[in-house]
Amino acid sequence: MKRWLNKIISGDCIEVLSRAKPFADLIFADPPFNIGYKYDKYNDKQEKDSYFGWTEKWMRACCDVLTKDGSFYIAMCDEHVADVKIIANKLHLFMRNWIIWHYTFGQQMKNKFARSHTHILYFVKDKDNFTFKADAIRVISDRQKVYKDKRAYRDGKMPDDVWDEYPRLCGTFEERVDDFPCQMPEGLLARIIRASSNEGDWVLDPFSGSGTTAVVAHKLNRIYTGIEISEKYVKESKNRIKDSEGLPVEGEGLPKWPDHADRELKWLYHENKVPDGKLRKDKMLLSIFTAKLNERLKKAQLYTPDDIIDRLEILRKAGKLGALREERVHSK
Ligand SMILES: C[S@@+](CC[C@H](N)C(=O)[O-])C[C@H]1O[C@@H](n2cnc3c(N)ncnc32)[C@H](O)[C@@H]1O
C-alpha cells in the first residue's frame, strides 16, 4: 500500500481497488454521470442497466477499501441519484446527509428550467463511529452577519445541507484547468475533507479526473490517492499537484476579515495589552499572538503574522481599534 501514498494511479478503479485492503479514511467519488460528457478515454453514454451494474461494482470496490470508521461521499446527477441510494442501502452504508450543491452558472435550457445543482450523498460505514469535525467547517451565521445579535454563537454555525457558495467552474475561471469538462471547485472539496478527515488521514478519489481531490487533500496535509483511467488526465493532474505546492485552497487565498474575526482580533488585542507598534517589532510576540487568534477562530481563515499587522493598521486608521488602557493613561 505504501506505493499508493500521495499517488495518482493510472487505471480502472474497480480493477485497481480489487488489489487493496481497507486503507481509505475518506472517499470522494465524482463518477461520470452518463450524460454524454466528452472525456479523453471513458465513453459517457452507457445503457442504463449497464451503468447501474457498473455503479454497483465501483461502489462495492470503494466500500471494500474504506476503513471501519471511514466516510464516503458520492456526487451524482438527478437521473441516477436514486439508484445510488438503493445500492448504498444494499451495501449497508449509513447516510448522514443528502447534500445539494446548488451552483451558479448552471447550464441554460431552451424549454425547461436550467439545471443548477448536483447531489452529494454523504455516507459512513458505521453510524456510531466516524470522523466529523464540526469546528473545522463552521460558517458565519445570519445572527452574526445580518442581525449582529450578541447572543449568536461566537464560532459560527454548521453549514446547511444546501451548499450554494461554490460556483460551477466556467472556462473563464482562473481555477479552471485546460481541456477538462467537469472540474469540481477546490472550496467544495476542502469543506468535505476538513469535515470528514484529520490531518494525516488517507483520502481516496477513484475518479480523479483533473486531480481536484488530491490537490486539496495535499494542501490540507492529508495523504491522497487518486485513480484515473485516462493517462492524459493522470499526467496533467500530476503537474497540477506539483504546481499547487505551497498554495492555499483556491478561493480561500486572500484572507478576508469577517466581522467575527475582527471582533476576536480586537478582543485579543485588548486582552494582551501589547501595542500594535510593539507587536510589529517583536517577532516572537507576534507569532504567539497569531497562534492564539487562529486557535480562537478554530477554522476558516488561518491568518499569518503579516495579515494581522495589516489588519490592525487598517482598524487603527479607521479608528476602530481603540486605545489600550496604557495608551490612554499615557496620553492624559
Ligand atoms: C466527473 S470526472 C471527475 C472530475 C473530478 N472530480 C475533478 O474535479 O477533476 C470523472 C472521471 O472519471 C474517469 N473515469 C471513468 N471511468 C473510470 C474508471 N473505471 N476508473 C477510473 N477513472 C475513471 C474519467 O476519465 C473522468 O476523468
Structural summary, described in words:
By secondary structure, the chain is α/β, with parallel strands linked by helices. It folds into 2 domains: about 240 residues, Rossmann fold, CATH 3.40.50; about 70 residues, no CATH class. The chain contains 12 helices and 8 strands. The protein has an 8-stranded mixed sheet with strand order 1-8-7-2-3-5-4-6, sandwiched between helices. The N and C termini lie far apart (about 70 Å). The mean pLDDT is about 90. S-adenosylmethionine (SAM) binds next to strand 8.
Helix and strand layout, with pairings?
Blueprint: E1 7-10, H1 13-17, E2 24-29, H2 48-65, E3 66-76, H3 78-90, E4 94-107, E5 115-124, H4 142-145, E6 162-163, H5 186-196, E7 202-205, H6 212-219, E8 223-228, H7 231-243, H8 259-272, H9 276-281, H10 283-297, H11 305-317, H12 325-331
Parallel strand pairs: 1-8, 2-3, 2-7, 4-6, 7-8
Antiparallel strand pairs: 3-5, 4-5
The protein binds S-adenosylmethionine (SAM).
Residues 12-13, 30-32, 39, 41-42, 182-184, 206-207, 209-210, 212, 227-230, 233 line the site of S-adenosylmethionine (SAM).
